Amino acid sequence: RFQQVQSMMYDLMEWRSQLLSGTLPKDELKELKQKVTSKIDYGNKILELDLIVRDEDGNILDPDKTNVISLFHAHEEATNKITERIKEEMQSKDQPDYASYSRMSSSPTHSLYVFVRNFVCRIGEDAELFMSLYDPQKLTIISENYLVRWGSRGFPKEIDMLNNLKVVFTDLGNKDLSRDKIYLVCQIVRVGRMDLKDSNSKKYTQGLRRPFGVAG
Q1: Phi and psi of 127, rounded to 5°?
Q2: Dedicator of cytokinesis N-terminal domain location, by residue (predicted)?
């Protein structure tokens, strides 16, 4: 049972990464969401948890807004699908699952937690800080950006975020840990005048985004 659930969890982690990547076409995205909900429902069944009934798009049906007959049919359909899945699993149980082994060895299992305490750089205007993980040998960014909006007075733009600027870079696999080096890079974008030297308010335009610096 444990190995069965473990294999399903690796599937879900892999599919979650694909969903978060934002690169899938609409039809593939819909298909993947259906695979995810199907896997969750199947897992609930073998763990003897409650059966969740869904509509065609995989959304959970609201019992307060769905009539009893529709709910009954949805339960029947969901039960039949899961029963079919269990039969398929039983038939393929004796065959070694090489795909599962390869997924287990390559699945993302590591995270990096970053807590931004302060940003010290005299700009005199608002700034946007983009933090990401960077492989200096392959000259490529290997994560999504974490955005912090920093005000001209030396505090976060959203003052309630003071001492609460935290981010977790997830889905880092063994491949990432074996990289020679990984840098945490911060790109600074100044938001304000075209040129910092502009002093006459009639001459300059407000709110322009200009590259200012990078640290890493």
Answers
A1: -145, 155
A2: 2-203
At 66, the amino acid letter reads T
One DSSP character per residue, 89-116 reads HHHTTTS--HHHHHHHHHS--EEEEEEE
Query: Tens digits of per-residue pLDDT, 90-128?
Result: 776 656 555 555 555 555 578 899 999 999 988 889 999
Is the distance from CB of 205 to CB of 193 less than 8 angstroms? yes
Is 156 strand, coil or helix? strand
- Name the DSSP letter for residue 118: -
Helices (H), 22-158: 26-46, 68-91, 98-106
Cα 82 to Cα 44: distance, rounded to the nearest angstrom = 10
The residue ranges of every structural domain in the chain are 1-93, 110-196+205-215
N-to-C CA span, the chain: 46
Q: Does domain 1-93 have CATH number 1.10.260.40?
A: no
Check if the beta carbon of residue 27 is closer than 8 Å to that of residue 19: no
